[in-house]
Amino acid sequence: MKDGLKKVKTQFFCQNCGHQSPKWLGKCPSCGEWNQFVEEEIRGTAPAISSEFQFAGSPLPIDAITADEKERVGTGIAEMDRVLGGGIVSGSAILVGGDPGIGKSTLLLQVLQCLAERDMKVLYVSGEESAKQIKLRGSRVGASSTNLLVLVEIALSNIIQQIKELSPHVVVIDSIQTVYSSALSSAPGSVGQVRETSGTLILLSKKTGIPVFLIGHVTKDGSIAGPKVLEHMVDTVLYFEGDGGHTYRIIRTMKNRYGPTNEIGVFEMRENGLQQVANPSAFFLAERPEGAAGSVVVPSMEGTRPILIEIQSLVSPTNLGMPRRTAIGVDHNRVSMLVAVIDRICGLHLGNQDIFINVAGGVKVDEPAVDLGIVSSLISGFLDRPIDSGTVVFGEVGLTGEVRGISQMETRIKEAARMGFKRCILPRTLSCEIVPPTKIKLFRIGTLRELLECLF
């Protein structure tokens, strides 16, 4: 090797999940994707952080630091404020992910318009669309304020320069996978570029106090594309959920350093953009059939919000050697376990039955509180006996058929009473001190055998 020439160190990175390997692999051992490994340069030393991004502070006693929880900026959209924990915190970095075309850019453009209407200067940086395309979307959703500035740029240095010159109140980067740093030789969207550009923008946000929204692409399984460290670096991670066959969209908080996690905001996609749904329970139960066997309503907690959802079951004799088990919106393994418990404890033999379970509206629930609702729906469908339409059911079911208590039962009961339900079947455990609203009657049970007595 000639003097003055340094050997370039490289590693192979999976462009789908960021898994690192010293050699090329056909299949990623982390995410299982094929032909995703790309060779990227590895710098021997970490890049020096510019002095303008260094805090250069000194240790302070924690009681000498002033901070107020009320120092938040409301977005003007109540559902968005809910998932953010009450509003935008100064200097926070917020990562927004979701499937292509689900409405990430549309929602953030609406958020910027609401802020711009309150005389706040906001900056929308796009590396995927031209200024005319953004203007067309803005016209559709009503974004026309002079305080909403649009910048079409992918060079990180130019973006930082514009942020310093404009000093906006909020910045949106759409998307972080398109931003390019000249410090690296790899292409935009690679693992190294995403790590470098996002890290620089987050440091700038902390230094200046300007909140930054980073829109991120997702992989085939729905996770944020790029290195997993990106989700650890930001303060808040929001995921957009939705189904192309439904008009609703759910934005869910997966991580929040300034508020509760697993909080959701419900929106409806319309011609003029995303409109917030103030009463999700009524929205999801709007098309519920009356007097149908296999249908039951369950109060589910999404963060701090109770939402009433409908669970439907279809149980029919199988014509195959192996009965089918299909579950949409709930865990397939948990359904199989509950079928076995019903067979053993209740004496209802479902082993030779095809079972199909669906959470109406395309909602996904994973808390154990829906166990009793799944069991009630299966029993109703198997016996072909409808459950009273004014009944809600919730509780966790154990392997011995016991019905266990769950959290926030009183909140669920109040939501059911507010929606006009008259009966509530709930666990006896932890519910003795609950005083129900006058419009709803409680049926406390301890086993599945007692459920059969109260259900019909």
Walk me through this protein's architecture.
The protein is α/β, with parallel strands linked by helices and 456 residues long. The protein folds into three domains: 9-42, no CATH class; 74-278, Rossmann fold (3-Layer(aba) Sandwich), CATH 3.40.50.300; 283-455, Ribosomal Protein S5, domain 2 (2-Layer Sandwich), CATH 3.30.230.10. Helix content is 25%, strand content 26%. The strands form six sheets. Strands 8-7-9-10-6-11-12-13-14 form a nine-stranded mixed β-sheet. Strands 15-16-18-17 form a four-stranded mixed β-sheet. Helix 8 packs across helix 9. The relative contact order is 0.09. The model has no long low-confidence stretch (mean pLDDT 87).
Produce the secondary structure layout:
Layout: E1 9-14, E2 20-21, E3 37-42, E4 72-73, H1 78-83, E5 88-89, E6 93-97, H2 104-116, E7 122-126, H3 131-141, E8 148-152, H4 156-166, E9 170-174, H5 191-208, E10 212-216, H6 229-233, E11 236-242, E12 248-256, E13 264-270, E14 273-276, H7 280-284, E15 295-302, E16 305-317, E17 325-328, H8 332-346, E18 353-359, H9 371-383, E19 391-393, E20 396-397, E21 403-404, H10 409-418, E22 423-427, E23 441-445, H11 448-455
Parallel strand pairs: 6-10, 6-11, 7-8, 7-9, 9-10, 17-18, 19-22, 22-23
Antiparallel strand pairs: 1-2, 1-3, 4-5, 11-12, 12-13, 13-14, 15-16, 16-18, 20-21
Helix pairs in contact: 8-9
